[in-house]
TrEMBL record:
Residues 216-316 form the Fe2OG dioxygenase domain. InterPro entries: DIOX_N, IPNS-like_FE2OG_OXY, IPNS-like_sf, Oxoglu/Fe-dep_dioxygenase_dom, Plant_2OG-oxidoreductases. GO terms for molecular function: L-ascorbic acid binding; metal ion binding; oxidoreductase activity. This is Fe2OG dioxygenase domain-containing protein. PROSITE patterns: FE2OG_OXY (PS51471). Keywords: Iron, Metal-binding, Oxidoreductase, Vitamin C. It comes from the Eukaryota. Belongs to the iron/ascorbate-dependent oxidoreductase family.
Amino acid sequence: MASAASIPSSSQPEPPMVHASNIFSIKELAELKGDSSLIPSTYHSISQLHDDDDDAECLASSIPVIDFSHLTSHHPQTHTKAVHLLGKACAEWGVFMLTNHGILENMVEKLMEKSREFHDLPIEEKKEFGDKSPLEPIRHGTSFFPHVEKVHYWRDFLKANTFPQFNFPHKPPGYREVAYEYSQKIRGLVRKLLEGISESLGLASNSIIESTEFDSGHQVFVANMYPPCPQPHLALGLPPHSDIGLLTLLTQNGIGGLQVKHHGKWVNVNPLSNSIIVILADQLEVLSNGKYEGVLHRAILNNEETRISVVMVNGPALDKEIGPLAELLEKEKPLFKSMTYQDYFQFHQRTRLDDKNTFDDKLIVFLWNLEGFSILKAVEEDEVLEEFGFGFSFLFLLHSLWTAHILPPLLTVHCNEYLHTIEMAFVEITSILPNFVFQNT
């Protein structure tokens, strides 16, 4: 049983230039803009957001639903069927809606209410949690990591590490208490889900729990606020990305905006009443040796209503080295090298989160673990790397390692569809990107 934490582009004129790195919140930005119907160009996403709106809604009803009461049933046939459905949802979608989970609807409503109250606090009261390192136990901010982003995102957030130590603001009144109770209940759900996922892989129910030291696992509470956006067709709340942990559990205030990518198409996630959205994340992809994948998802915007979502990111113990489960490697080769969750977590939290880096972030894990090499630095002459972003600098590195025949087999497989793009990009950038410096370790 898990131990409890102790509570302690338009032709219209460009609006005045606003730098997101100097903006403390989207609410502040809206106040600065006044009645302007335009958003700063730094919030313009290069993605085509609405090129498949019909598909997005059409496929929404196909998202799997898992009945938690069946998964925990003592009736063997009911439990076995639920485990089969859970494995199918993980393999085919990477996301599902969890019903009959036992968390009361009025608790979720109170959580949404208090999350909204926090975001509505005066700026001066929230600055206590602003301008902090991404690894701080409590942090409030906007976008994802504005200091390194080239495109910013239309959201404010509160992030708090809630396990193994419970960290949380003391305002507004009552928020800390409901967040503590909710985070504990979520951990209980995740534990049972991980047991079911282990069984769906043909393993003992405690396999993932033990291999990740989940009872000391890291949990992050994230309260997102996506205010109405004057130009929702140009901006994103969050770009396409996969999550860093094992399982992410999400609830929201009834306003839609979450989309997942399924067979190359974006699909709206319209949760059933009092259901919890469960999203598979990167560590589970590694543990399952690629059988289950961390699903790409994003947050789109609207111009009428504020969306509030509470996201619980549940991961392994920070110091635990995570790799493919040994039981799965008896008949297959490992597709991932091992690394500690803390290393992965820190890399993710200090890196831009955008369309390009969704792919880059997954691959960099392999490169960090290539035996004999570590990146010392990339010389940023004339701010070339900043101009092109980490994505292009990564293509340069990837091309170099690929042509030197030192990429792991899986990385080559994953890169097959990108190799031509990498080759073309390399031709374009080799004349302006400086060489990387390597050190044999």
